[in-house]
Design brief:
The complex is a heterodimer of chains A (318) and B (431). By secondary structure, chain A is an alpha/beta fold. Helix content of chain A is 40%, strand content 14%. The longest helix of chain A is centred in the last third of the chain and has 20 residues. The relative contact order of chain B is 0.17. Classes of the chains: A alpha/beta (318), B alpha/beta (431).
Chain lengths: 318, 431
């Protein structure tokens, strides 16, 4: 339908962003390059662009999220879109059929971009098949969270000058983490060495064949690492069933000074948020000089602006 | 600690060390609480001055027994058994190391409680005591216990006491998580749903007695489930007390497939059968229940074949409050520390099991499985020793039982083979 008119449309030849899987390394790099420019825009007094003027962006969140939803909202508004937030409580929408009904209803309102978060893996793909507009995956179950991986990559790149040949240790609840899956794919695509560090109960089956080195011992897993990426532990769900207790988890898998000392001296610490201080990360580390956690939030807006811009280039009548 | 013990030479003995395969006439020299030499050539280097020489002609000298299935009443049931009284009973039975069940009140599911057991044992026990910690919190089978922290505190293994973990997903995660810490998962294998209210082996005799009974399948299904999960997780697994031929056979097949699995059996299931229960005698009520004679014979054969790795006393002190009830309402369990070796020797005298094989299942096998010191006569090993006359006849007199509880299934039983001396860290603790 559309004719690509901007270089970005050629660099990112997709109508949706459903996952990192399937993206070519140069496509990822193109998004990151564009995000660099978006960082500059966000740091100006005049932050508004007109790329999405007249466009309607719906943030459809079936799962509560303050951080990601506001990040997408700001990104859309800075590009001039009319942004509508729809929070659908997960209790009222349980069946796939209802999801499709919701999609059909929204589609009738002629949105241009829908940003979707859903608690079920694959839900965003399903929705993308049922609507006529562009769809961005803002997290689907334990499957993917592509903009998080992009913002992590942008943050790393700005500090380390690149991704290739870095050693990145992803630590914590890999099993339930969409952030981990997207990051494993992206970091491998850009040539990093990826490790995962977790108790075996929090590792998915076949993890060793997913392009990572697997460690149960955190000090060994962090040895020589350039980047330590912590994941959030869902305490309510985990304690007793996947791990014995928060105190035991912190003892063996919480990032404290002692464990971080195994990594390179200039290792940087990341966390997708929200953090459980004292569970997966010592507050001293979270707020310390090696932490990039605040900066990740800033990069989140930039990356989402880049993604929205790339999709806008494929919208009809662009 | 008191001063260094006087060196001891046990002379003219039949020295048996199952770990090294030694079975020969000779002597054993104990110096500074350690084994200095054992066997025919033990005196080649001579003995230190002042060595106490004990002529044990006609007796066997072997590593002190290691019993990894001992329930003690401390904390919470001190009227039934304390660590001190259990250790006295152990010493009388030639047991130099007991591994205690976490099934106490409170349950040993917190590192501070592991520390409590170790301190009480240090201050009151005359034998070595190593605690097992609970596999799940409160033994409830629903929440994983702090396997890492408990292990650091000194727990040598993880057991759910006499309660099975029925939730297969939980058991999978326990095996998986414990593997990260190289911890052994020890499990009581009885499907409580299938066992139901059963209090006795399912059989014709149970039907005539009118007692609710538990089928062998209640055990076999749980053992087979666990072995599947051990294969899935590559975890370290030990079935605590199997009692059915099919259970042992399943463990044997799993070993052949390279799994890190073992199994144990209580001495009661090697020495007794369901007919011993007689007219509702509650001291014979135990879990798993005593089985048919053909089942017992199959277990003895499995022990001789090495399929069964460990023999435990399954010592479980119960008093009149818990035992003097109608059979179905009485508590499970029997004491056994003092009769463990004597009852085991019945298998040797019957010609079913060689003495070194019997001893291996009570010494080096459990030591190896739990990573405990001792269980062998190697130079430098702890001087934990049992000296016994394998043939001396005696009758168990209830009045002479050291345990605080008297619920023995061997009351007035005739045995051939008696413990003469028990030595822990080079000191004689029973003679």
């Amino acid at each position: 339908m559309s004719t690509p008119t901007s270089p970005l449309a050629e660099l990112y030849p997709h109508r949706h962003l459903l996952g990192i899987e399937g993206l070519q390394p140069h496509e990822i790099t193109a998004l990151l390059d564009r995000a660099e420019a978006a960082v500059e825009i966000s740091r100006q007094v005049e932050k508004k662009k007109a790329v999405l003027r007249g466009r309607t962006q719906i943030n459809l969140f079936f799962e509560a999220s303050t951080r990601t939803q506001s990040s997408f909202e700001i990104a859309g508004k800075r590009l001039g879109a009319d942004v509508m937030n729809m929070s659908v409580s997960s209790s009222s929408v349980k069946k796939g059929e209802t999801l499709i009904d919701t999609a059909a209803t929204l589609n009738a309102m002629h949105p241009d971009i829908i940003v979707v978060r859903h608690h079920a893996a694959g839900a965003v793909h399903l929705l993308a098949q049922k609507v006529g507009c562009s769809v961005v995956n803002a997290g689907d179950g334990a499957h993917e969270h592509p903009t998080q991986a992009l913002l992590d990559a942008l943050t790393i790149r700005r500090h380390k000058g690149g991704i290739a040949r870095l050693t990145v240790a992803i630590c914590g609840d890999i099993l339930h983490s969409r952030v981990a899956r997207s990051n494993i794919i992206l970091l491998n695509a850009l040539g990093a060495r990826v490790r995962v560090v977790a108790p075996s109960t929090l590792l998915p089956n076949g993890i060793a064949q997913m392009g990572v080195e697997v460690f149960q011992d955190m000090r060994a897993g962090l040895a020589g690492a350039d980047i330590v990426m912590m994941l959030r532990l869902q305490r309510e769900r985990m304690a007793g069933s996947f791990i014995p207790s928060v105190r035991e988890y912190f003892r063996y898998y919480g990032l404290d000074r002692d464990k971080l000392d195994s990594a390179k001296p200039d290792a940087l610490v990341m966390h997708p948020g929200p953090m459980n201080r004292g569970v997966e990360i010592d507050p001293e580390i979270a707020d310390g000089p090696q932490s990039l956690i605040r900066e990740q939030v800033e990069m989140g807006v930039a990356v989402r602006m880049a993604v929205l811009e790339a999709l806008a280039a494929h919208l009809p009548n662009n | 600690m008191a001063a260094t013990p006087t060196p001891i030479l046990l002379a003219n003995a039949r020295v048996i060390d199952p770990a090294s395969g030694i079975d020969e006439q000779g002597s054993v020299l104990l110096v500074d609480g350690r084994i200095a030499a054992a066997g025919t050539a033990a005196l080649n280097q001579g003995a230190p001055e002042g060595t106490q020489v004990i002529d044990v002609a006609g007796a066997v000298v072997a590593p002190g027994l290691i019993d990894i299935g001992v329930t003690v009443g401390e904390p919470g049931g001190e009227h039934r058994e304390t660590l001190a009284s259990a250790s006295q009973a152990a010493a009388a039975g030639g047991v130099t190391t007991i591994v205690t069940s976490p099934q106490t009140d409170p349950v040993i599911d917190d590192p501070a409680l592991v520390d409590f057991i170790l301190r009480r044992a240090r201050d009151t026990a005359v034998v070595n005591v190593h605690p097992l910690a609970a596999l799940t919190k409160h033994l409830g089978g629903e929440e994983m216990s702090e396997i890492g922290l408990l292990r650091e505190a000194g727990a040598v293994g993880f057991s759910n006491g006499h309660r099975s973990v029925t939730h297969s997903g939980m058991m999978r995660r326990l095996l998986t998580y414990a593997r990260d810490f190289d911890a052994l998962v020890m499990h009581h294998t009885e499907d409580p749903d299938l066992a139901g209210a059963g209090v006795i082996n399912e059989s014709l005799s149970a039907s005539w007695k009118g007692l609710p009974s538990s089928p062998r399948e209640a055990e076999i299904i749980m053992v087979e489930r666990d072995l599947r999960l051990a294969a899935l997780t590559r975890g370290r697994y030990h079935a605590q007390t199997v009692s059915c031929a099919d259970s042992a056979a399943a463990v044997g097949r799993a070993k052949e497939n390279g799994l890190d699995v073992t199994c144990g059996i209580s001495i009661n299931h090697l020495a007794l059968n369901e007919n011993d229960i007689g007219p509702y005698r509650t001291f014979f009520k135990m879990s798993p229940p005593l089985r048919a004679e053909e089942e017992r014979l199959a277990m003895v054969a499995a022990l001789a074949a090495g399929t069964i790795d460990v023999i435990v006393s399954n010592h479980d002190p119960q008093d009149v409050e818990t035992k003097r009830h109608p059979f179905a309402e009485a508590a499970d369990g029997a004491i056994g520390l003092e009769t463990l070796l004597a009852a085991g020797l019945r298998l040797v005298h019957a010609g079913d099991v060689p003495l070194p094989t019997l001893l291996a299942a009570m010494t080096c096998n459990p030591a190896h499985r739990l990573g405990l010191p001792g269980g062998c006569l190697a130079k430098g090993a702890p001087a934990d020793i049992v000296v016994f006359d394998p043939d001396r006849p005696w009758v168990l007199d209830k009045a002479r039982i050291r345990s605080r509880s008297k619920n023995t299934p061997f009351e007035d039983a005739r045995f051939s083979g008696q413990v003469l001396q028990t030595i822990v860290a080079g000191r004689i603790v029973s003679s």
